[in-house]
Amino acid sequence: MPVSLLWAVDVYGRVYSLSTAGQQWEQCRDAQMEIKRVTAVQQCCWGIACDNSIYLNVHASDLPVRYQEETYENQRWNPVDGFSDRLLPSDRWQWSDITGLQHQPLDSFQLPSSSWEWEGDWYVDENFEGEPTEKEGWTYAIDFPANYTKDKRWNSCVRRRRWLRYRRYKAMDTWAKIPSQQTTLPDPFSDISCGGWEISEEPRGRLSLWAVSLQGKVWFRDGIYHHNPEGSLWEEVPLPGEVVQISCGPGDLVWAVLWEGQLIVREGISRDCPKGTSWAVVESPSPDVGATHVAVGVSVVWAVTKDSKVWFRRGVNSHNPCGSGWISMVGEMIMINVGLNDQVWGISSEDRGVYFRQGVTSSELSGKTWKAISVPRDGDRSHSSASASSLQSAGCFFCGEVRAQSVVSDVESDTEKGSADGASCLVTSASPESFVDAPSDPSDPSTAGEGGVRSSSAGGVLSPSQSGAPLEWSNVDLEEAQGQQVPAGAVQDSTDTCSLSSVATYTLAMEDPYGADEHPLWAWVSGGGCNVDSHYQLNWFNSMAQSVQSMSLSVTPAQTAAWRKQIFEQLSERTKREMDNFRHYEQAIEQSVWVKKGTMQWWRDWKPHKWIDVHFALEQFSGPEGNKDGILFIYYNFYEEKKYLHAFINEVTILVPVLNDSKHTFAIYTPERTKQRWPIRLAAATELEMHDWLALLSVSCCDSRGIHGPPSKQAIWSTTCKGDIFVSEPSPALEAMPYPTPSDQMFWRQVGGHLRVVECNSVGIVWGIGYDHIAWAYTGGYGGGFFQGLASSTDNIYTQTDVKSVYIYENQRWNPVTGYTNRGLPTDRYMWSDASGLHECTKTNTKPPSPQWTWVSDWVIDYSVSGGTDREGWQYAADFPASYHGHKTMKDFVRRRRWARKCKLTTTGPWQEIPPIPLSDVTILPCAAQSSMEVVPLWAISNKGDVLCRLGVTALTPAGSSWLHVGTDQPFKSISIGAARQVWAIARDGSAFYRGSVSEENPAGDCWYHIPSPSKQKLKQVSVGRTSVYTVDENGKKTHFHMNLTQLTLDDYCSLLKEEIVTGILITLYDTVWIIADKVQGSHSLSCGTVCHRLGVQPMEPKGQSWDYGIGGGWDHITVRGNSMEPPRIRLPSLTDPLPALQSPISVRNTEVNGNPVGC
Predict the structure, then answer these.
(1) What family does the entry list (predicted)?
(2) Which of 39, 835, 949, 966 has its CA 20 to 30 A from that of 63?
(3) How many CB atoms sit inside 10 A of residue 541's CB?
């Protein structure tokens, strides 16, 4: 689980953060002034300072925030000057945007604020639609506007070129003031809330920032997204009344509190209208006591009334944002905040401590009990000036009258949940604490008339007479007061009064506002960026954890490895010493037989194919030398005649769980059945029984082949289309020429975990990427998942989560009467279907991929579909199926749109998460087995297309230390590093790039070289070996570049596949080629996702000779880069050769490049 932060502000304006993996509050030392309120998301934190301005703190990351500015230079040809900047009066500007309507000279671009800096000067973009242009970057057309080409023609009368310049956001981990782009500044702000990132995910990925001014107006900050964290401008939102506080959730929930105590809900929020259309009024939870605070999440709403009571709103969702009713909760709070996964934090009105709501799950959103977060701050004593009496005179945070506790009817109560965790849980106070705005003059009866100040026994508040001197309250602009020293006991006149939701600030004079053993008084908390799951164990509630941590020793991975080696050697010596004393004894049992039986269903081999009940038996036996083997028996009835089917355990090549809506099935492959594409399919009665059989059969297969423990460094890794991970131990003859080991005879065993992509090398470094783009590093264990006991290691197994989307399609056909409707022709596909249209998939009958997956979101329209969509998510075409596009034309008679729903899987495996940047591709340098390289180059691409280089990756620390960003002019989608640190990459527009000057001293290289792609081909994936580079285009055809690494010249284009459709390709260190094919010659649909091995690949014949079709289908990715063994060359025997020569393979010496062994 990634580390995230909980943010809080104390009553003295100091900002603290608490990590989910930490055990103390860390003070934000950078704040130049005191902060009143904060609102946080995962990538940044917003705050309101005492000058009522908004400040932004962007968390530092290895991935910089870069914004691309662009402008176009336009020229027209004339017979005298040729191409020049003399344009016609009707032409566009000489310097303009892409449309030509806006004048944009180079000197008109200014930095939006002091938080930005230019990366360099303007330069010409020499890439046009994935192909390199001429040196000056011009593209030509007949006239403005028209279709541009990179080639100049006889009728090219106009031309243009694009100029680029990047600016970088430099104010990382510091509070930067948000500039105002308007001449009339908005009112000073009193409340702020950030959210809305789930409204429009990629490719937009925007945030919604809502703010409340002191005059009760609501403002919306537009234009906030990853490349522009400050946003563009403020827009005022019309209101039915004056607002005092607002809350925005991750989705489309926005609630606000009116001055009168009512609540309003924003309606009409969507992807194209993030600020909504209208307000709906919701009454306060209590008819006599108005609300003072509201907090919303994905599908929850919490509220606090003036009597400090906490309320929970039931029935809230995207379709019903107003909910259905209030539930009274145990506890008295000043404020509430809802974070990720609808987890809840609050500040108690009794001791002003931060409390966490325990037991919040998707099935019980209201939780069970409040528990105090009892962790120390990062210093024993604070460093802010305050008088000693200010501690006891800590004022209240909200104004309002103290009313008698009303008897609320027609609401539910959760008092039964009050039986909590003993003293650590919050108990409801007998008398609610009053919230009043401190008057500037306590003796003024007119000021005190709105609400009286009374002492609270819980807070220990003293009146001015008790403190020994009259004390006045005021809002202090601490930024202006920084330059002057305030004497003890002095006060400052108040120029304005606090709003209903403003935080009181104290007159500060002396240091040490808190005693050494006293907890801080908190004013605000924000968990919008704090990712806490219901099963995650936090260290926030154990006061002894800090002391234990301080006493623990710092153990390095090198020390751990040395200790393990020493212990293993001692145990081996002890075992040898003890066994030697009993070698003269005769063996009591020469052979043992063990049988396990059960009942299953079998998908019979002959037609008509159907499930039949069978008896299943596994017979295992061990020989006198300890070798183990076994046989599988399937007993069935055929026309009342008992028959059986058997398979030897040592012939089983793989055991695969199979997705099935109604049965728990798995498949057993042997070499013969792999060729037939017809495995043995069995179905167990329960999922637990299926996992037990899979684990038992896997252990038996490994025993028969002598495979034990974790995978070797030379192992071949692969993933299936459902995310299962498999490894295969390569034999020395796997790449032997001319008779390599057939691919269908490779044995695969499953490893716990769930990944979409996996990459490895021969040093033992293995990385994987999940469906949610989270990166994982292999820890050296084995097993996990449903493998238990002897089938799994006891250490190096961690919890792993993954999130993926399930897609269904809504299809419609046009008719002249009603337009587009869900009534299609009889020959049409289902109106709700999968991508193929052959299977009906509706919102109600579509289930998660397997029982291990659980839904974590509702169905939403997916706009990130290839080809684009309109504003409602529709794609149009002439008929089903056809090429879809995102705009309607006169010839489009059908349309479709894709719906997505997220589901989550929690499993275990030998994988450790590598936060925080999500990745889409990763590649590791393939090293020779005898390589002495310490730091291994590893490159990756983020899910936003940024190129990254990982530093500090070694065999002892495979996760590395940090990321180094490599600048690009456009987002990338595929990357590969080959021998001699050759880095190639594919951009999202299909163009190929080579990174120059990559070395051990310069791991990130110097610059990108644009490599021309094959004619009219858009590339999708690249893989680099020792002397060859292979790519796959977007149509699934594979293109081979034969590359001379010393001169970097491309001297061969050739298409290798005629009928195969390739989804992935991988090249080893010695240029051996493996692919995942979605279509194989002469095979049926079961070949989708087949592992194929290219035979006959040699230095003089880099494109090979033929394909060896291996295990399939259902494979999604394979990596063979760990197999760094030089392919042996077997010399064919002749009649004159002596007999021993028939069995002696002759290996070829290692090839060298530039006099150095290739591989490092």
Answers:
(1) Belongs to the TECPR1 family.
(2) 39
(3) 16
Contact yes or no for 914/959 (Cβ under 8 A): yes
pLDDT at 864 over 80: yes
The pLDDT assigned to 615 comes to 93
Q: Where in the chain is the domain with CATH 2.130.10.30?
A: 42-63+183-372
Is residue 106 within 8 Å of 97, Cβ to Cβ? Answer: no
Give CA–CA dist 1110/671, Å, rounded: 9
> What span, in angstroms and rounded, lies between the C-alpha atoms of 882 and 321?
38
Output the DSSP codes for 93-119.
-SEE-TTS-SB--GGG---SSTTEEE-
Distance CA 1037, CA 1021 (A): 11
> Counting beta carbons within 10 angstroms of the beta carbon of residue 582, is it exposed (0 to 12), middle (13 to 18) or buried (19 or more)?
exposed
Choice between 432 and 878, residue whose per-residue pLDDT is larger: 878
Find out whether 118 and 111 touch, Cβ atoms under 8 Å: yes
Residue 1085 CB partners (closer than 8 Å, separation 6+): 1113
CA distance 652 to 646: 11
For the chain, helix, strand, coil in percent to 5 are 10, 35, 55
Cβ contact 50:13 at 8 Å? yes
Q: Residues 937-959: pLDDT tens digits?
A: 999 999 989 999 999 999 899 99
Banded model confidence at residue 1124, pLDDT cuts 50, 70, 90: low
* β pairing state of 1106-1109 and 1090-1095: antiparallel
Q: Are strands 748-751 and 725-728 parallel, antiparallel or unpaired?
A: antiparallel
205 pLDDT above the threshold of 60: yes
pLDDT band at 165 (very low <50, low <70, confident <90, very high): very high
Cβ count within 10 A of residue 291: 25
Instruction: Evaluate if residue 1110 carries a pLDDT over 80.
Output: no
- Residues 1030, 1022: contact at Cβ < 8 Å? yes
- Sign of torsion over alpha carbons 789, 791, 797, 798: negative
Query: What would you measure as the largest C-alpha separation in the chain, in angstroms?
Result: 121
What CA–CA distance (Å, rounded) separates 225 from 752? 36
What whole-number distance in Å separates Cα of residue 452 and Cα of residue 407?
A: 23
The residue whose two tokens read 């034969």 is 1042
Lowest pLDDT segment from 457-466, 512-521, 590-599, 802-811: 457-466
Distance CA(7)–CA(348), nearest Å, equals 16
| pLDDT tier for residue 390 given thresholds of 50, 70 and 90 | very low
Q: Which residues contact 1019 (CB under 8 A, 6 or more apart)?
A: 974, 986, 990, 991, 992, 1013, 1031, 1032, 1033, 1034, 1039
Using 50, 70 and 90 to split pLDDT, how confident is the model at 743?
confident
Q: Strands 189-195 and 176-177, how do they pair?
A: unpaired
Residue 7 has pLDDT above 70, yes or no: yes
- pLDDT at residue 62 in the model: 84
Please name the residue ranges forming H helices in 410-556: 445-448, 544-551
Residue 836, amino acid: S
